[in-house]
Amino acid sequence: MEYLKSAWRSLFRKKFRTVLTLISIAIGVASVVLISMIGDTGKGAIRDEINALGLGNLSVSAVQKSAVTLDETDLKRVQEMDFVDDAVPIMMEYTDAISRGLICNVVAWGIDAGDKQIISLDLLHGSLFTNDEVSKAKKVCLVDEEYAQSVYKRSNIVGKTIKVRLNGVYEELEVIGVVASGGNMLQSLLTDYIPSFIYLPYSTLQQAAARSSFDQIAVKIEQDYDLELAITRLEHMLNAQTQNSYRVENTQKTKQTFYDILNIVTMVLSLIAGISLMVAGLGIMTVMLCAVSERTREIGIKKSIGAKQKNILLEFLVEAFTISLIGSIIGCVSGLALMLLAGWMFGIAVSIDVSMIVFCVLFTVCIGMIFGVYPAYRASKLLPVDALRFE
Fold first, then answer.
1. Which helix (H) or strand (E) element contains residue 384?
2. Backbone angles phi, psi at 225, to 5 degrees
3. Is the dihedral angle over the CA atoms 171, 176, 177, 182 positive or is it negative?
4. Which DSSP state fits 136?
C-alpha cells in the first residue's frame, strides 16, 4: 500500500503530463474494445441474418456440364428419403420490378406453399401461398418489408400490384403478403449491393420463365442425423442412373466459411488497433524516464538512508502499473459506453464479451510494466553519490 500511495503522489506531481499519458492509454484501449465489440456485434447480427435465410441443411443442384435438370420427379425422390424432414424446390432469378413508376432491382424467388418454409418467412401482413395458388400457378407474390418501405414508404401494401420482368416480359402480380424475410438488415445496410426479395409460387415462375425445372432443392435433414451420411446417400440415390450429374452441398459449411472470414477481418482490425497500445506503452516509458531524471536527487536521498536497489525498482514499476491500470480502465469504460450508446441510437443489440475486456486491461498493464522496466532499472542502478550531486 505504501508503494501505491507513493506512486499516486509521484504521478500527479506533473498532473498535465500524467493526464496526457492516461488519455493516450485510454484511447488505445478504447479503440481495441470498440473494434472488438463492433466485430462481435456485427458477426452476431450477420450470423442471425444468414441463419434467418434458412435454406435448410443441404442443397441439391444439377451439375452445370451435365444435361440433366431438377424436376418434380427428383423432388419426390428426395422427399421420400427416410432421413429427410422436408424438401422444397427453389428457383431464383435476378430481375427488376416496377411499381408506382419506380424500377427496383429484385431477386425473384420461386418457392412452395405452406407456413413452414425452409426459407425463413416471418409474415407481417396478408397471407402466405396456399397449395391451390401453387398448383394453379396464380399470379400472386409476397414482398419483403424493405421493398414495401422503399417504394410505398409503409410496410402494409397487401392488394397492390407490381410488374416483375420474367423471361423478358413484365408479369403483373398481386401482392398478397408482406414478410420480414431473412436478410432485411443486410439489405438496409447494403441497399446498392443486396436487392429486395420478391417471392412467387415456383409454378408461377416456371410458367413465366417457360421452364419445367428447378434451380435447387433445399433439404432439411432430421435432427441429429449425420450430414455427411445424408450427402452420401442422396448423391448415391440421385446419381444411380446418371453418373455424377447431381451435386449435394452442405450449406452449413458455406456459412462457416463466411464466419471464418468475419473472424479474420475482426482479428486484423484488432491488431491494427493494438498498435495504438504499443504507442501508449512508449508514452509510459517516456513519462517514467522523465520521472527518473526529475527525481534523481530524491533517489539518491532514499538510497543514502537505506533504500535498496529492489525498493527503487519496485517503486517505479508500481508507478508504471498504476498509470497503465487507470488508463486501461478509463479506456474500457469509455469504449463500452460509446458502443452501448451507438447500439441504443441504432437499435442494435450489443454483444459484450467480458473476457475480452478483462484481457484488454491485463494486456495493457503488461505492456505498461514492460515499458516501465527500463526506466525503473535505470533508477535503481543510480549511485547515491552521483544522484545527490545531480542538479
1. helix 384-389
2. -80, 140
3. negative
4. T
Q: Provide the strand spans (E) within the chain.
A: 58-62, 84-99, 102-111, 121-126, 140-144, 161-166, 169-181, 196-201, 216-221, 246-250
Integer Cα distance of 161 and 172 in angstroms = 7
Q: Model-level pTM?
A: 0.57
Residue 50 has what pLDDT?
A: 57
Q: Cα(99)–Cα(172) distance, rounded to whole angstroms?
A: 10
Q: pLDDT tens-digit profile of 54-64? A: 555 788 888 86
Backbone angles phi, psi at 174, to 5 degrees: -90, 130
Crossing angle between the packed helical segments 227-238 and 72-79, to the nearest 10 degrees? 140
DSSP class of residue 70 equals B
Q: Report which of 10, 34, 5, 48 is spatially closest to residue 338, judged by C-alpha positions.
A: 34
Secondary structure of residue 159 in the 3-state scheme: coil
Give how far Cα 314 sits from Cα of 81, 206, 308, 390, Å. 72, 79, 10, 22
What is residue 158's DSSP assignment? T
Residue 173 has pLDDT above 90, yes or no: yes
Task: Give the bridge partners for 143, in sequence order.
Answer: 178, 198
- Residues facing residue 122 across a β-bridge: 180
The residues that bridge with 70 in the sheet, in sequence order, are 214
> Residues 257-274: what's their mean pLDDT?
74
Measured CA to CA in angstroms, residue 294 lies from 5, 169, 229, 299, 315 at distances of 19, 84, 73, 10, 15
CA of 125: how far to CAs of 113, 121, 122, 142, 144, in Å? Answer: 17, 12, 9, 10, 10
Q: Report, in angstroms and rounded to the nearest whole number, the Rg of the chain calculated over CA atoms.
A: 32
For residue 259 the three cell numbers come to 464466419
From residue 22, alpha-carbon distances to 196, 198, 327, 330 in Å are 48, 54, 5, 8
- Which grid cell sits at 329? 480502465
**Which tens digit of pLDDT belongs to each residue from 116-149?**
456 667 789 999 888 889 889 899 999 988 888 8
